[in-house]
Write a structure and sequence with these properties.
Layout lengths: L2 H21 L6 H8 L3 H7 L3 H21 L9 H21 L1 H7 L8 H27 L9 H21 L13 H17 L2
Helix pairs in contact: 1-2, 1-6, 4-5, 4-7, 5-9, 7-8
Length: 206
């Protein structure tokens, strides 16, 4: 794929995300996306079979990026407390950076209107399930390596971590009222550091 073709494709995807987040998936027509992106309708259909096809790609791409960030925290060997904390902070920086650079995707993922459209519902559920499973896998591995105790508590620990991260990102990006114009007051590195300490020491019970 040439750079020009990729750039056009990315512009269409970015415009679609912005419209979905501000107008809603159901109210956004292909003609709206075409007009917003400045491309011809034929160009849209050259890249995507349909709006649904494009939406699935948007969520699959976002899911892949977020899971990849979390999976970078997977520990193959036992590490010191300092190394574990640094590792947790590193993957949280990756995740928060993605969230910051993908505000409209996160607006859809964390939307208060969850449940309003079956297409978006299914996509959101898939991303959330994948993120939870990735966190669960990391925690289970830490138990296997003897870095955490109590294998029977992996599910509830994963739930605590998942909802803490999801809720924190939502508040950080959009405030308490899911405001798309809200500007975060905390830098990525600072938030990652606080989240890492809260998660790590909460899991260890220390």
């Amino acid at each position: 794929m040439s750079k020009e073709i990729k750039d056009t494709r990315d512009v269409i995807l970015e415009c679609a995300l912005r419209l979905f987040a501000t107008k809603g998936y159901h109210l956004t027509k292909v003609s709206d996306i075409v007009r917003e992106s400045g491309c011809a309708q034929a160009t849209f259909y050259w890249h995507f079979k349909s709006k649904l096809d494009m939406t699935r790609e948007l969520f699959e791409s976002g899911q892949h990026a977020m899971v990849a960030a979390i999976d970078r925290g997977y520990r193959a060997h036992v590490a010191s407390t300092e190394d574990m904390l640094a590792n947790t902070r590193a993957w949280l920086i990756d995740l928060l950076t993605f969230a910051s650079e993908s505000r409209y995707f996160m607006a859809l993922l964390l939307a208060k209107g969850y449940g309003a459209d079956p297409v978006i519902d299914t996509a959101i559920s898939g991303v959330r399930a994948a993120l939870y499973e990735s966190l669960r896998r990391n925690i289970e591995q830490a138990v296997t390596l003897g870095m955490l105790r109590d294998l029977d508590k992996v599910d509830v620990r994963a739930a605590f971590v998942y909802h803490t991260i999801e809720g924190t990102i939502g508040w950080w990006l959009f405030g308490h009222g899911h405001d798309l114009a809200h500007q975060p007051s905390i830098e990525v590195q600072d938030l990652a550091d606080q989240l890492a300490r809260y998660e790590f020491f909460g899991l260890t019970g220390k």
